[in-house]
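Mods, move this if it's the wrong board.
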Amino acid sequence: MLLDATISQGLFAFNPDMMYEQLVKNYENAEKMYGESMLRLATGYDPNALKKNIKFPEFQRELKNKMQKMLQEMKDENFLDDQNKITDRGIELASLVLYMEELNDLRAKGIGEKKTRKPMLYGEKMNVREYRKHDRYHDLALKSIIKTSIRRGHKKIENEDLRVFERESKGKIYIIYALDASGSMKGNKINLCKKAGIALAYKAIEENDKAGLIVFGTKIEEQVYPTSDFSQFIMSITRIRAQKQTDIALTIEKAIEMFPKDNVTKHLVLITDAVPTVGEDPSKNTLNLVERATALGISISVIGIEIDKEGIELAKKIVEIGNGRLYIVKGLENLDRIVLQDYYSL
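Not the wrong board. Structure tokens:
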């Protein structure tokens, strides 16, 4: 759990000497740097107790000894190397902890199973409905359009006459979980986003669908092509460290590359707490790529975590063009429910 908290704080190593120095020098700054969860796990004390006693020399000596002992134990287990950096074995352990915690949460919440028959972007032509903005022209129901136009006495086809086929699932979904790793996501926020991604991958793979991963900041930090290999997914999502700006356009461009050209349902879910910040006109670039993705049969949903008005407006445009859904999240406790709700609605 300490290794997982260390990674979620954007750190590559567990350095108890530096942490101890920060705690003694300025507790408030140390709490901002490491977060309450990491401090609790690293010291064995509740943050309130730490803050109350950190100025006492006897407490300081006891705390320093305890943290050094923990450091040595993790090195002995090969969870940290000689420079205190987290090893692959440490990452593997942290991923197992994340998986078990989320699996227990899913069982406690009793989240249900995916329904098998839902309208899809690809699949067999089924019911006919009114045309909506950004529907694919390929799905236009020509006979129904002509009949509707004639019945209404129109001399030419009007927009209101347009009809499209809904498509029934062929049973195969490829979903990519795209997680914002900008600096504002660090700590408990990114930890809960990781767990929600694990829940999605677990359920999707259980349903014989495939789950992929994109971790984005200024650049693509981590990627997993849609896969049925759950261990590959959780190892990659565990490594995520929040540290940079947000480039949603690059993420969508990467997702287009990662989805197969097969005739399957392709869905991208974007998890972010901010508007894109990279490029001359990041919002315009983002929407251009959303249109391109939609033309290739990729739907896009956005889960906005405490985003501002500007972010909400952009997110609305993304899901309108991308034939997806928008979820604005205030509290993260049920983020895994929201992510699974989006998957189940496909």
